[in-house]
């Protein structure tokens, strides 16, 4: 007994030591480029009918690309940690505009000089608004690669069941639709008329803008207490109180919205155009092929029939200040940003940052909503300009809007409180 | 007792070095950090106690404080009561005892992430099993997404579910070592069951109760994943607990100073709560055997 | 043993049944749902009888082919952390059991005090240092961290077990000229084997399930299984519940079996010495 046990312990200890050695032993490949992003960036640039753009880059530059992919929030937390080290390990990173601000920008290379020296072809073809979202202090810190722009998704079966013909053509009609689409189906399923993805500016701005209001302009003018925004919040509170939006909406994450659409428990939702695919996924959706998407209509009060400004989010390619291989990093960014690469990534499922890509016949054929998305992209805006405390302001909007929805405050009170809290955080 | 020799010190050094290197030194750095304003891409500036003043003046901090206070106490004492009850129940007449204990221990093996997945799945509005059952007997639904106290209730239940096995094990071990004749003698003497429990059983298992309490307090204080994955502290930051407050400032707002100060407030609180238990442990551990 | 009436037995059975339902049902639900076709998962009332399918598992390994590698990582890290933790705690536990001095009392208190720090905060200062030593995304850093957070508890348990071992046995060994380490290995530890198992379980389960440190200190090579579960939960394309349940089931089943297998040792172990002094 004694000898066996000590023998076992010794073996175990020895194997533990070997394992620890294995862990530290890493192999360095030559001319490797480490790219940090979300899994979706890897898939749109390497898989699909548009072909593997990255493989061509690797061949042309005799390099090998190492992908490190994470979920959205962990990706940024990790990226900023990596970028603040003395010696970095990441060459190129995908950065979401929501996480960028003038402080964080200090961790990345300004790219104007790179562009001047070795320009991306047809650089002006990339949406100016998207480049603006990555500009801090007059310097460009990221080259837009992907956008997620919002459209109005609607379940055609439910519209037909309630005798509605085609998607709403104005914001007023949209409100009517939302009311009518809140009903119980014959099989007893409760359908809710409408749902948003969340309560922060990233999700409520579409309704605010469509009702003619605004929250924070790009030159930091705060309009939260003005009638437009208050009316938008009041509309949401009314929807919530009347059950047009499901009660659980308050705690909703993106995943819940998708589940609700797939389960046929909600008839309309404002979501990125790209959600069209999961909504109609025959594997998971109870309504495959029945959920369509269009651009959000403008209010009648505007006097013109047209498309309302919607929220867009932009992923941009950036080079950390401490990147080991900045030159190769720039080559990678260039390779992903040519007009041809933009089209091919779009075919692979990317939201193209060059509006011209929507006119490409291959994109037209593969993306059923290309025309509607192009219309939306032309007027889309980022929900908040990036500044040091934007994450905090984001949370405050969420908090105050939730207070209004729960009836703890009137919409006017909530927005007045919001104004009071946000004002001191704005850049002078 | 042996005299303490140099090689004894060598023998405790691996444990002490791990603790010093990975917890103590970093935490001293965190103390330093709590006196500074620090974020990515900016200069670190000494600000004295400004971070502490900020959090003590922040109503959301106090809400997080009270939420933590309530949840920790519900969880720790809830577990204790359930744990003692279960220990007494299982230690008595119980068919298939080993199998029963096995099943009772299972939640202990579940990672927090999976546990949240399970309970969210059962509490999904309309379609989750628990909500569906409650709804069909006309009891209404648990709307953890909209109500502060219901959300904190769900968080407490989830935490209890996850860690009850730990408490149960400690108490069960203590109960099974009770000398049966003493307990039976008390019963034969005509004491009611509650009297027997209160006057005989409880004092005898008190050391185990203290161990369970001490460890559960230390761990429950840092309650994070359950709240973060369930509500992210919402709606309207009503369900935030201290660790979520810390996380929000440190990782979302990148205000490392504020996060560090919150961390030290949490340490101080843990110490304060544990002081009494520490003292008891100390007496038991080092009274001469 | 006092005799129980039939009524009392029935009450006890009911209570035991409730306790089993409480502990086991959520786990059963996840495991069962992992074998359901994705669209049936949200059926109300939940279908109790269904055609079991492995679709979710096939899908899991198609979409996350690296999951098996992550499981292996979890296993390596868990075993490494357990070995390190138990070895160092056995050494320390012996000293705390056999020697008295104010220095030891102080250091025992230090052990407890230091454990009160919320782990999440120390990741802030630790990250740059870990990177400096090239330990990011390696097994070593996770092994060291996981062991660290359980050496206090394990030392405590080891001390309690060693307290129960009569010192006469060691003294005989010392007289024969054995060193402390030899005595510990050949005389004390073999008698404290229940303590070793009991102390191992806590660090083992913790390491297998740990999430925050793994999130911060691993990127790809050393990534562990719980991270993958959280990633499936957080995909932008919407949660694939079927895949999520399949991953959770795979991660959960081995550790549950382990806990059940060593259950006897834990209970016997804690009974023998864990808390009684």
Primary descriptors:
heterotrimer, A: 428 residues, alpha/beta, two-stranded antiparallel ribbon, 14% strand, globular, B: 289 residues, mainly alpha, 2 strands
Short description:
The complex is a heterotrimer of chains A (428), B (289) and C (277). By secondary structure, chain A is of the alpha/beta class.
Total strand count of chain B, please?
2
SS-based class of chain B: mainly alpha
- Our Rg estimate of chain A from Cα atoms comes to 24 Å
| Largest sheet features of chain A | 9 strands, mixed
User: How would you state the average pLDDT of chain B, rounded?
Assistant: 85
Q: Rg of chain B from C-alpha positions?
A: 23 Å
Q: Give the overall shape of chain A, derived from the CA principal axes.
A: globular
3D structure, described in words:
The complex is a heterotrimer of chains A (428), B (289) and C (277). With 428 residues, chain A is of the alpha/beta class. Helices cover 44% and strands 14% of the residues of chain A. In chain A, strands 1, 2, 3, 6, 7, 8, 9, 10 and 11 form a nine-stranded mixed beta sheet that branches. In chain A, strands 4-5 form a two-stranded antiparallel sheet. In chain A, α10 (201-210) crosses α11 (227-241) and α18 (390-405) packs antiparallel against α19 (411-422). Chain A is globular. In chain A, 52% of the residues are buried. Helix content of chain B is 73%, strand content 1%. By secondary structure, chain C is mostly helical. Chain C has helices at 6-33, 55-63, 67-98, 102-114, 119-132, 139-163, 167-175, 180-191, 193-209, 212-217, 225-233, 241-274. The two termini of chain C are 26 Å apart. Classes of the chains: A alpha/beta (428), B mainly alpha (289), C mainly alpha (277). Chains in contact: A-B, A-C, B-C. At the B-C interface, α1, α3, α4, α5 and α7 of B face α1, α3, α4, α5 and α6 of C.
């Amino acid at each position: 007994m004694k000898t066996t046990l000590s023998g076992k312990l010794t073996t175990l200890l020895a194997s533990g030591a070997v394992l620890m050695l294995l862990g530290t032993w890493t192999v360095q490949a030559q001319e490797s480029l480490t790219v940090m992003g979300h899994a979706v960036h890897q898939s749109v640039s390497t898989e699909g009918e548009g072909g593997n753009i990255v493989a061509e880059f690797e061949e042309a530059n005799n390099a090998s690309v190492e992908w490190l992919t994470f979920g959205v929030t962990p990706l940024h937390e990790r990226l900023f940690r990596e970028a603040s080290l003395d010696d970095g390990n990441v060459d190129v990173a995908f950065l979401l505009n929501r996480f960028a601000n003038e402080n964080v920008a200090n961790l990345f290379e300004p790219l104007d000089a790179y562009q001047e020296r070795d320009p991306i072809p047809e650089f002006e073809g990339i949406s100016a608004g998207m480049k603006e979202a990555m500009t801090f202090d007059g310097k460009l810190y990221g080259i837009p690669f992907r956008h997620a722009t919002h459209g109005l998704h609607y379940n055609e079966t439910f519209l037909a069941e309630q005798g509605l013909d085609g998607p709403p053509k104005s914001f007023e009609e949209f409100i009517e639709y939302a009311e009518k689409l809140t009903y119980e189906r014959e099989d007893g399923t409760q359908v809710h008329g409408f749902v948003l993805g969340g309560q922060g500016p990233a999700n409520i701005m579409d309704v605010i803008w469509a009702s003619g209001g605004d929250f924070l302009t790009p030159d930091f003018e705060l309009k939260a207490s003005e009638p437009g925004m208050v009316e938008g919040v009041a509309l949401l509170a009314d929807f919530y109180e009347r059950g047009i939006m499901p009660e659980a909406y308050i705690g909703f994450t993106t995943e819940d919205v998708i589940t609700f659409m797939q389960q046929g428990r909600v008839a309309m939702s404002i979501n990125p155009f790209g959600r069209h695919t999961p909504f109609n996924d025959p594997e998971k959706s109870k309504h495959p092929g029945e959920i369509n998407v269009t651009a959000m209509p403008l209010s009648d009060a505007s006097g013109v029939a047209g498309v309302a400004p919607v929220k867009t989010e932009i992923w941009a390619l950036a080079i950390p200040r401490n990147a080991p291989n900045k030159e190769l990093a720039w080559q990678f960014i260039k390779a992903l940003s040519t007009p041809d690469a933009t089209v091919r990534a779009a075919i692979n499922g990317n939201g193209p940052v060059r509006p011209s890509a929507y006119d490409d016949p291959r994109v037209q054929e593969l993306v059923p909503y290309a025309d509607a998305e192009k219309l939306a992209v032309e007027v889309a805006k980022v929900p908040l300009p990036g500044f040091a405390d934007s994450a905090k302001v984001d949370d405050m909007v969420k908090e105050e809007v939730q207070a209004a929805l729960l009836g703890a405050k009137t919409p006017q009170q909530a927005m007045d409180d919001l104004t009071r809290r946000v004002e001191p955080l704005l850049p002078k | 007792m042996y005299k303490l020799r140099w090689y004894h010190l060598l023998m405790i050094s691996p444990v002490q070095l791990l603790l010093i290197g990975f917890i103590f030194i970093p935490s001293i750095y965190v103390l330093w950090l709590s006196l500074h304003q620090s974020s990515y891409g900016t200069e670190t500036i000494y600000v004295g106690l400004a971070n502490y003043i900020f959090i003590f003046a922040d109503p959301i901090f106090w809400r997080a404080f009270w939420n933590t206070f309530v949840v920790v106490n519900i969880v720790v004492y809830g577990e204790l009561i359930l744990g003692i009850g279960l220990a007494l129940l299982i230690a008595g007449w119980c068919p298939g005892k080993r199998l029963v204990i096995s099943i009772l221990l299972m939640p202990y093996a579940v990672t927090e992430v999976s546990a949240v997945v399970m309970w969210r799945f059962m509490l999904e509005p309309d379609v989750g099993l628990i909500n569906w059952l409650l709804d069909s007997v006309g009891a209404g639904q648990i709307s953890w997404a909209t109500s502060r106290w219901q959300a904190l209730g769900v968080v407490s239940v989830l935490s209890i579910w996850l860690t009850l096995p730990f408490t149960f094990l400690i108490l069960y071990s203590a109960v099974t070592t009770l000398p049966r004749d003493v307990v039976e003698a008390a019963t034969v003497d005509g004491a009611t069951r509650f009297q027997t429990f209160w006057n005989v059983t409880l004092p005898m298992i008190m050391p185990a109760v203290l161990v369970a309490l001490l460890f559960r307090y230390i761990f429950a204080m840092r309650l994070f994943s359950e709240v973060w994955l369930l509500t992210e502290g919402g709606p309207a930051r009503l369900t935030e607990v201290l660790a979520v407050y810390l996380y929000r400032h440190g990782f979302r707002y990148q205000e490392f100073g504020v996060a560090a100060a919150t961390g030290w407030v949490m340490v101080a609180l843990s110490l304060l709560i544990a002081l009494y238990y520490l003292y008891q442990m100390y007496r038991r551990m080092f009274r001469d055997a | 043993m006092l005799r129980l009436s039939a009524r009392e037995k029935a009450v006890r059975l009911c209570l035991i049944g409730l306790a089993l339902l409480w502990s086991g049902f959520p786990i059963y639900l996840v495991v069962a749902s992992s074998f359901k076709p994705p669209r049936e998962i949200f059926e109300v009332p939940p279908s109790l009888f269904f055609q079991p399918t492995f679709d979710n598992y096939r899908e899991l390994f198609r979409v996350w082919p690296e999951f098996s590698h992550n499981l292996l990582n979890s296993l390596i890290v868990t075993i490494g952390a357990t070995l390190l933790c138990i070895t160092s705690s056995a050494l320390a536990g012996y000293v705390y059991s056999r020697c008295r001095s104010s220095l030891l009392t102080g250091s025992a208190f230090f052990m407890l005090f230091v454990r009160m720090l919320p782990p999440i905060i120390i990741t802030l200062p630790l990250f740059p240092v870990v990177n400096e030593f090239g330990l990011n995304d390696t097994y070593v850093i996770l092994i060291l961290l996981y062991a660290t957070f359980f050496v206090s508890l394990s030392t405590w348990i080891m001390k309690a077990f060693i307290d129960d071992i009569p010192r006469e046995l060691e003294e005989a060994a010392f007289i024969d000229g054995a060193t402390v380490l030899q005595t510990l290995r050949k005389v004390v530890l073999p008698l404290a084997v229940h303590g070793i198992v009991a102390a191992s379980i806590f660090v083992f389960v913790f390491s297998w399930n740990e999430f925050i440190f793994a999130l911060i200190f691993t990127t790809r090579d050393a990534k562990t299984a719980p991270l993958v579960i959280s990633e499936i939960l957080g995909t932008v394309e919407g949660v694939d519940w079927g895949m999520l349940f399949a991953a959770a089931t795979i991660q959960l089943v081995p550790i549950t079996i382990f806990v059940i297998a060593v259950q006897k040792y834990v209970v016997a172990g804690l009974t023998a010495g864990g808390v009684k002094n």
